[in-house]
Amino acid sequence: MAKAGPEGLITALDIGSSKVSALIAQKGDGGELVVLGTGQRESRGVQRGYIADMTATEAAVREAVEQAERIAGINIEDVWVSFSAGGLVSDVVKLEVDLGGHRVEQQDVDELLNAGRNAIDPNGRMVLHAQPMRYTLDGRNGVRNPKGLHADKLGVDIHVVATDGSPVRNLDLCVRSAHLEVKSIIAAPVATGLACLSEEERELGVALVEIGAGVTNVSVFREGVLASLASIGMGAADITDDIASAFGTRRAQAERLKCFHGSANMSPRDHHEMIDVAPVSQEGEAEGTRITRAQLNTVIRARLERLMAEVQKELKRLNFDDPVGRQLVLTGGGAELRGIADYAQQALGRAVRIGRPRGLSALPEAHSGPAFATLAGLATFAASDPVDLRSIEPRHTAVTRPGRVGTWAARLFSAFKANY
């Protein structure tokens, strides 16, 4: 019989277009995250990242979590959930105020953060993240904690991620219908970046391309945070569908062909190696066909060519089109395709590597590939105990410096209206 969960337990839940996966972890004595149990079920109710069938998705969530609970021997009550559908927007709002050269006190920081919290109004969108990244003193960046330092001007950079509200509410309702409390809903690119990218990469600038089953998210990280992103309504499942259509077989067989025989690269021997393809129908005397590996890879590369063209277009739109010194990291289930890193490097003209989850102990080998990067990143995000402006309670202090809070609120409100 499963026991109640101990303190410090973290449960991550990634609801994707092809699979629903869960992970239960706990902080070890040295601060590391130790995986206690994992679970996975096929996703039947999600299309292109959006909930399309509440009942089917709810069942998959319940089964995935129950599997993780059985392995961990623990009952869990709340989860951190990823949101990977399109419509996400990311921005950094900068705010600065005059201090007059005095020493920064906690009250100055509190007033600034409270003004930011009260002023957030992203023009009808739902805010998923509103986090103070770093502070500035007299325009100098990179200040983690300004308290106790002297400055003429104190500023803060607030990282905001927002999206359309209805898909998030549907996701929240689906998880709660499975009798789970939602601790927070996290934008998938934020979580995936934590799992796959080093802090130095995020500071220097890197593009993260997560190829999911139905959606490919293109994220650009600068100065340590997710600076901009875009979603492409195409993914690894489209390659599977192309194979099924081209060779007249079932999706399950097409997926198997892609995973076991497919490659993004071509070689001369591909023209000689034969592969058996089962027919769509198993009834009657329907016979399968035989194709060469070259035929299979030609279909795969045709879809990849379209996908990489879209990725290149989005990289340009996100001002990440200069290939010099700009690395790209591929992750997601689609990044498990054989030879895709080499193909992407040639197609995009920049250094490419595969991003796998890092930073978790006892992670099962079956869940250590790029397809589970978001799941691992969710646990890492939760363990970091992130500060979010929306969770800060409004403070009412008797003494304030005249006019400052109102000015901050007005400037931050204007910044949000301009960006959303």
Automatic annotation (TrEMBL):
Record bears the keyword Cell division: yes
What is the annotated localization of this protein?
A: Cell membrane
This protein's major location comes to: membrane
Keyword flag Cell division: yes
Give the membrane topology.
Peripheral membrane protein
Q: Which UniProt keywords apply?
A: Cell cycle, Cell division, Cell membrane, Membrane
HAMAP family to which the protein is assigned, alphabetical = FtsA
Q: Function of this protein?
A: Cell division protein that is involved in the assembly of the Z ring. May serve as a membrane anchor for the Z ring.
Name the chain's protein: Cell division protein FtsA
Q: Which source organism?
A: Sphingomonas donggukensis
Designated gene of the protein? ftsA
